[in-house]
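From the shared-data thread, chain only:
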Amino acid sequence: KTDWPNLYKENLMKAIVYPKFGPPDVLELQEVAKPIPKDDEVLVKIMATTVAAEEPGMRQSPGLNGFGKPKKPILGFYLAGTVETVGKDVTRFKIGDAVYGNTGLGLLSTYAEYICMPEDGALVPKPDNISFAEATAVPNGVLTALPFLRDKANIQPGHKVLINGASGAVGTAAVQLAKHFGAEVTGVCSTGNVAMVRSLGADRVIDYTQEDFTQTGHTYDIIFDAVGKSSFAQCKGSLTKSGIYLTTVPSPTIVFQTLWTSLTGGQKVKFATTGLRKSTAKLQDLLFANELIEAGKITAVIDRTYPLAQMADAHRYVETGRKKGNVVIIVAQ
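Structure, as tokens:
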């Protein structure tokens, strides 16, 4: 005799859904249909996810995730978990594999107990020497900082690099990656984060509440503004003659400066839409990150953790702009 009530319940999962744009209170814990993997997909049981800095903005206002109402009612870019089911054509993963990765803007949906990911998506094995919480905190920073420093700035050993916003998710990854590439790194952060940024390997740390890095007289081959709080005009005097200014916030002015400086000699302005890169590129970057994680050269920085049911509180904290590294959501123990 079929146990219909339990069978129905097995096909549901808990997720944080937002039916409309608005304040953190629009985030609701609901039971929704559990996804079913296609032939080329894996079903991942999510153990942990994060609240990235851009997600409260996506929750608050129309734009990246629809206009009249959210196109994807479940937010979340990053996940770590275990493979529960594999489609019949999947060969790269097997049931029970511990994995982590990034869904991309088209999929989102990590504020949930389960997600289906394509086999060729930005999903990689989780190194044994980090937890699920640490693993989900890796991609946000690495998948932004690595393309900027390596691909846009062509970072080289001996380069002098300044990271503005060195204590955030992207900044903490940038400090560690720049050191890996052999650069001399200066981090800029607030008083309470100086020791942490120094512990990540920064050669020098500037407390922006006490000192303006553009007024120190030091020059840098690369200035990477990981929080979009400076401008090229402010930083020009702190760049070498062939220095590169990078920013994660591409305003119309930055777009114009990028085009203009690409046609002239000397200093350059560059930005990248790292979140829109192909999954194949992200996959390769995560595999590169795995090598550094296994070698102990990258440490995931976690500020706070919240259970899934307290997602609204996590959003409120991220919106303060004071988080150190990552805010992690524990979905399952």
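DSSP finds ten helices and 15 strands in the chain.
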